[in-house]
Amino acid sequence: MTSTGVVNGPTSVVAGDFSGDGKLDLVLAGYEACIQTCTSSTTSILLGNGDGTFQAPSTIFSTSGILAVGDVNHDGKLDLVLLESAPVSLSFNGIQLTQIYLGNGDGTFSNTQNYFPTPTTNPELALADFNDDGNLDIAAVNSVLLGMVTILFSLGGSSVGVAGKYHSGGSGRSIC
To answer: Is the pLDDT of residue 81 over 60?
Structure first.
């Protein structure tokens, strides 16, 4: 087994053809080496060779968190949604941002837009068309807040609006 390029292990991984060559690629998000406090995180792409092996990792941005993948802006290229999960020491009062990175179809991504602040303890993400308008919406769950689910409705393209917060009635830790 070879190194992933994320020294302290990935916090999230997604697969898809991000480079447009018909081969599955991996995107890994995670913290770099941590001693007492994690102060640096990255998200890297490993381009697939089509035979179950991957090329060396390449850092695509210097933040990490929980990843979800889908074609958010309907251009036929896979995009990444990232619920940033930097250490609380790097966050704004323990709150992180949901970010959208638009895929360029060649394994690179455009600059991000920051969206709704979301608490980060045990976060999870899911993309689906919750309001049946043909656009992928974002659902984020937080287990510490009694399984609170925040929905961000897509306004088309890469714009989102806050739809609401819902409680699951328990302490959910996952969403799919």
So the answer is: yes
